[in-house]
Every structure is written in structure tokens, then in C-alpha cells.
Design a protein that fits this description.
Largest sheet: 6 strands, antiparallel
Helix content: 55-70%
Shape: globular
Strand content: 5-15%
Radius of gyration: 27 Å
Structural class: alpha+beta
């Protein structure tokens, strides 16, 4: 009965999204009745989707194997925490999670936009309602998670062993929060295009939503990278997997969007360009959904699915992207370009940075989609791997990283090139010296290592220079007051940029100095990695709640001093008879010692992967700093004190005798 209630709640949620959408685009004679329905309809939509999600979760926790989806992705021996995460462990549940998070973002807009005029909020909620309607139809028509299995299965097939990990608890929801969060920026952009009001007010309202979504996506990608690092046993942190690329593309577009919104808010420039970036960022999120859910990709992340699902998503993708781009092509030329600026200015540097980010995004997209196109045309199989992405992506993104250091120091509208060079001379000098000395201190110098250290030091040095210049030029006498007077968005920018520098240090050093050994070890054998000595003491059998495992024991010493005991495992999950590797890692601020247990090579000998990974933790630490910078920017006091800035819409001219009309006059009206 509870699964049927969950299914019925989804149907009611679809009805609420239709009311929510109508509230944004349909008006009565007085122009207010439908607007007033937008917020309550959106809140009812969230409650109904939450009820549906709770019903599916209940079915998993209670082992209701009469529900087909539960029987396919759970098992009675599965620990309770993984029964909950199994809710989004397959296609149907992950789409329902997407719908829930989309409803959550919609609810957040109703709660945190009370100072904005109701007509604009209704328009934004109407756009979000149309997107929700598409995903609810997709769920109900092709991906129903409440379909019954009669007679009920005696037991479930089990959750994929790869997903029975703590990373499954937080990584997918965090990633989806970022993916789906770009719908708010998309909805604000579409609403502003319809009303012809791409102004600073629109950018000010859209910017914090975009930054929060970008922060979530940054954390989600970092958590996925960390999960792959310790779970797959390969010792890598990024594999250019097609689904990894599907998350990287909207992140790159979202990064460009954040910077473009800042220019539009502060200078009134880039208005049309910013709206286009909002459309692109959300379109890339939808493209990622198509790649993962359509079954066109073969990936450890992807879900195999019915071709009908792929056709539905592709049609929805074409409808959303096509209609929004058509609207942009119609309305953007009438909006105007905003404030002018010189060739050398902060605006021009940010624009160049935006273009480089989009070119990098296009390069990733080409490498991801081109093999699919070749395959679809029957021209053979083509594999595009890390050599392509590293050879193409790095040369494009490196100039963007260099501009990251210059942009914040340049003046708005017009900057003096010689003055800029004079101010940056110390940062450039320190970066050049660090690029030579730091690699030599670490053991050896190569051009790539030196270039990576140069970029990281350049970004960190320009951040410090920017802070010093800003504090010195402030009129307050007290240094403490000068620091306190800076805005949250400014400190957020500095922290995020420093996070990029930390990330580059981690990538550069682990790529240049990592040591990897694939060895055969019997009890008593030792392996030396730098200053560390690893001794293999043998393997014993252990039992888990739903698996049996061979657990190795390795003693780690340094200079004869015991440090830790590592216990990698090779598991066999009994329900699905699937083997899995569980790595063991000794972590430190400046390095990881990583051990993965391989296949048995005799009565007591085993294959073993032992890796020394210097500064690998800085990769994820840098990502967390980036996300923290975004959250600091959102906490800026000016966003907490936003007041109603959008003008109230004028009365719509209506034909006599028509009680209900589409809001076409608002679409046609151009407000400059």
C-alpha cells in the first residue's frame, strides 16, 4: 500500500508542477490571482515528492521485495545504511532523487526570495516548474520506481558492491545538488529574457544561487574523485571517465558564469553573455543526465537503461535547450550590451578567462561525444583516453590560470598595462624562483613540474598581493578594521583562488613524484619505498555482514620506528558472488602510503600494489577550499540585506471578455 501512495504522490506532484508553471505564465484580469499560487504550489510540489521518496526509502528499509526496484538493488543481508543509499543506487531511484533535489531548490526559492517582487518570483518558479514537469513525466512514464513484482522475490539481487561504501551516502546527493542547482540560474535567466530585464538586479539575485550550486558541484566532484581513489584500487584520482567528464563540463561553464555574473552585477556589462552562460551551464547538466541515464555510455558510473529512456531524455534535452536558445536569440539583441570597457581592463581579462573556460569545456565535450557519434554512424569504435585530454585540456586551461592572477588586480573599465606589470613584478619573480627551487628540493626538476609550481605560486602570490594592496589602500586607520571591512565575496574569491593553487600543487607533485610498485609478496617479505619499509605478515579470512574477505596485514616502519598497520582486503559479496578490493591507506598531510591486495599467487603469496603518493591529499583539500570560498561569497552581507529592486510589472492589456490569457504581452514588452 505504501508504494502505491508514493506513486500517487508523484502523480499529484505532477499536477502541482502544472499549477506552478501556469502561475508564472498565465494571468487573470487583475494579474495577481495566478501569481499568488506560485509559492504554495511549489511548496506542495516539494512535500509530495518528499512523501514519494520516503515511501521508496521505507520499501528498501523494510525489504519489500514485491517492489521490482527494491528486489533489483537490495538484499536482506545488506546493512541498513546501504539499504537507504540503495534508494539512489539504480536508475529509477537516482532519477527520483534528482526530482526531490529539484523540488528542494524550488522550495528554497520560495523561502529566500521574499524581498523580490511576486511577478518575477512566479516567473522563475514557472520555469522551474516546467523543468520539474519534464522529469516527473520521465519518472512516471519510463522510470517508475514503484512498479510491483508479483509474486514477490524471496530475496533481492543486492546492491552493486562498488556502491556499498560510505561515499555512496554523500557523493550522489552532493553532486546532484550541484547539477540541479544550476536550474535556478537558468530560471532567472529565462525569466529575465522574457521580461527583457537583464540588469544588475537580475545578476544580484542570481549570483548567490549560482555560487551555492557551484560549491555543491565542486564538493560532489571532489568526493567522487576521492571515492574512486580509495575504492577502485588503481591509485588514481581522475580517469577522464566519460561520466566524470559529464560533471566537469557544467563545472567549467558554472565557473565562467560566476565570474560573468560578478561583472554584470558590478558594471552592468556582459548581460547577454551571462544569460547565455546560465543556459549553457544548465544545458550541460541535462547533457550529463542524458549520458548517464540513456545507456549510451559504458562506464563504472553509468546505469544501463531502456532505449526508450534515452529517447525521452534526448527529446527533453532538445526541447529545453532549443527553446531557451531560441528565446535568447530573440530577446538578447534587444537587451543591449551594457557598459563599455577598454581592451586592457578587469572586464576584458574576465571575458578572456570565460572564453578559455568554455574552449576547455568544448574540448572535453569533443573527446567525450565524438566516439559516441562515430559509433552511432557505424564508422567503427574509437577510444579517447587520458592522452587526448591531457594534451588538449592542459594547454587551454593554463592561460586561464595565469589570467586568474591578473584579473583581480586590474582596474574596472580601463587599466594601465605598465602599472599592472609593475605591481605584478614581485609575484612573477617569486613564482619563477619557486618553479626552479621547489622541484629541486623535492628531488628532481622537469619542465612540467616546474610549470605546475610556477602556476600555483603565481596564483597564491597574486592573491597575497591583492590582499595587501586592498588593505593598504583602505581609509580606516586600524588594520583590524580594514580586514573586517572587506566583503565576504572578496574573501571568498581569495580563498577559492588559493584553493586552485593548492589543487595545482597536489596534481603537480603527485604526478611528478609518485612511486608505484606492483609486487609479489609472501609472509615476511619487505618492500622499501623511500624512507618507508612495508613488511607483509600474511592474510587471514574475515566475515562481514554480507561478504567474506581475505584481509592482509602489513606493518609499516620508518627509520626502524613502527608507524602503522595496514589491512587491505579482497572481498567476495555472497549475494552476487562479486569480488571487490578494499584498499588500505596511511594518510599524512604531505603524502599517502597506499596498499591494494591483488590476486593470490600461490599457497601464501599475493600480488600487491603499493603506492607512495606525495601531496595527493592537497588535491581534495584544494577543492574543499574552492567550495569554502563559494560559501564565504554567498555569506556576503549585501546578499543578506537585499531589498526589492525589480519594478512591479504594469497591468497587462487584456481583451474584453477573456478571463484567462497567456502572458504574451509580457513576453513582447522590452524593458531596456
Amino acid at each position: 500500500m505504501i508504494p502505491e501512495l508514493g506513486h500517487f504522490a508523484l502523480i499529484l506532484a505532477l499536477a502541482m508542477t502544472l499549477v506552478q508553471s501556469a502561475a508564472g505564465f498565465v494571468r487573470t484580469r487583475n494579474g495577481t490571482a495566478w501569481i499568488a499560487l506560485a509559492r504554495p504550489a511549489a511548496r506542495a510540489h516539494f512535500v509530495l515528492v518528499a512523501i514519494s521518496f520516503a515511501a521508496l526509502t521505507h520499501a528498501f528499509v523494510q525489504n519489500d521485495f514485491s517492489v521490482l526496484y527494491v528486489a533489483q538493488h537490495s538484499n536482506s543481508m545488506l546493512p541498513t545504511v546501504y539499504r537507504v543509499t540503495a534508494v539512489w543506487g539504480g536508475h529509477e531511484g537516482s532519477i527520483l532523487l534528482w526530482v526531490l533535489i529539484l523540488a528542494g531548490w524550488t522550495l528554497a526559492v520560495t523561502l529566500f526570495s521574499r524581498e523580490q517582487d511576486e511577478a518575477t518570483v512566479a516567473r522563475v518558479l514557472g520555469v522551474m516548474g516546467l523543468v520539474s514537469c519534464g522529469f516527473l513525466l520521465f519518472t512516471l512514464l519510463t522510470s517508475n520506481p514503484f512498479a510491483r513484482l508479483l509474486p514477490a522475490a524471496a530475496d533481492g539481487q543486492d546492491l552493486t558492491p562498488l556502491l556499498q561504501d560510505p561515499g555512496m551516502v554523500i557523493h550522489p546527493p552532493m553532486l546532484y545538488m550541484g547539477y540541479v542547482g544550476f536550474v535556478v540560474a537558468f530560471a532567472f535567466a529565462v525569466a529575465a529574457l522574457i521580461d527583457g530585464r537583464l540588469d544588475a538586479s537580475w545578476a544580484r539575485w542570481s549570483r548567490p544561487w549560482t555560487t551555492v550550486a557551484w560549491s555543491f558541484l565542486t564538493c560532489g566532484i571532489a568526493l567522487g574523485s576521492f571515492w574512486a581513489y580509495y575504492e577502485l584500487g588503481w591509485g588514481g584520482w581522475w580517469f577522464w571517465d566519460p561520466v566524470e567528464n559529464a560533471s566537469l563540463m557544467p563545472w567549467l561553464a558554472g565557473t565562467a558564469l560566476i565570474h560573468s555574473l560578478a561583472v554584470t552585477e558590478k558594471r552592468g556589462a556582459f548581460r547577454s553573455w551571462t544569460a547565455l552562460l546560465a543556459i549553457i551551464a544548465f544545458s550541460l547538466s541535462l547533457l550529463g543526465t542524458f549520458l548517464v541515464r540513456s545507456g549510451v555510455l559504458s562506464s563504472v558510473h553509468a546505469f544501463a537503461s531502456d532505449p526508450k529512456r534515452g529517447v525521452f531524455i534526448l527529446a527533453f534535452l532538445a526541447l529545453v535547450i532549443g527553446s531557451s536558445l531560441a528565446l535568447f536569440a530573440w530577446r538578447a539583441p534587444k537587451v543591449g550590451q551594457g557598459a563599455r570597457f577598454d581592451t586592457v581592463s578587469r572586464e576584458s581579462l574576465l571575458l578572456a578567462n570565460n572564453m578559455l573556460l568554455l574552449v576547455a569545456c568544448a574540448a572535453v565535450m569533443l573527446g567525450t561525444l565524438y566516439p559516441l557519434v562515430i559509433d552511432a554512424l557505424g564508422l567503427g569504435k574509437l577510444s579517447v583516453g587520458p592522452p587526448y585530454f591531457e594534451a588538449v585540456f592542459v594547454p587551454i586551461i593554463a592561460p586561464a590560470l595565469f589570467l586568474m592572477g591578473i584579473g583581480p588586480l586590474a582596474r574596472w573599465q580601463r587599466a594601465d598595462l605598465f602599472d599592472l606589470a609593475h605591481r605584478l613584478r614581485w609575484a612573477l619573480g617569486v613564482s619563477a624562483v619557486s618553479a626552479v627551487l621547489a622541484p629541486l628540493a623535492l628531488g628532481r626538476w622537469t619542465p612540467l613540474i616546474g610549470f605546475g609550481i610556477l602556476l600555483a605560486t603565481w596564483i597564491a602570490g597574486t592573491c597575497l598581493l591583492n590582499l595587501v594592496d586592498r588593505i593598504r589602500s583602505h581609509p580606516l586607520e586600524s588594520w583590524t578594521a580594514r580586514f573586517a571591512a572587506q566583503s565576504g565575496s572578496y574573501y571568498g574569491m581569495l580563498v577559492a583562488h588559493c584553493g586552485v593553487a593548492v589543487f595545482i600543487v597536489g596534481v603537480t607533485i603527485v604526478g611528478g613524484y609518485a612511486v608505484e610498485r606492483d609486487v609479489r609478496m609472501a609472509p615476511g617479505d619487505t618492500l622499501t619505498l623511500g624512507a618507508y619499509v612495508v613488511r607483509f605478515d600474511g592474510v587471514r579470512e574475515v566475515r562481514g555482514p554480507n561478504y567474506v574477505a581475505a584481509r592482509g596485514t602489513l606493518d609499516v616502519t620508518r627509520s626502524g620506528r613502527p608507524l602503522t598497520v595496514l589491512s587491505p582486503e579482497r572481498r567476495l559479496y555472497t549475494a552476487s558472488n562479486t569480488p571487490m578490493t578494499e584498499t588500505a591507506i596511511y594518510r599524512h598531510l604531505t603524502r599517502d602510503l597506499y596498499v591494494s591486495l591483488g590476486e593470490p599467487l600461490g599457497p601464501s603469496a599475493w600480488s600487491m600494489r603499493v603506492y607512495y603518493k606525495p601531496f595527493v591529499g592537497w588535491i581534495w583539500g584544494g577543492c574543499l577550499l574552492m567550495a569554502l570560498g563559494g560559501l564565504l561569497a554567498v555569506g556576503d552581507r549585501r546578499y543578506r540585506s537585499l531589498r526589492r529592486t525589480a519594478a512591479q510589472p504594469s497591468a497587462m492589456p487584456l481583451s474584453a471578455g477573456l478571463p484567462l490569457v497567456l502572458d504574451l504581452p509580457a513576453i513582447k514588452a522590452t524593458r531596456r
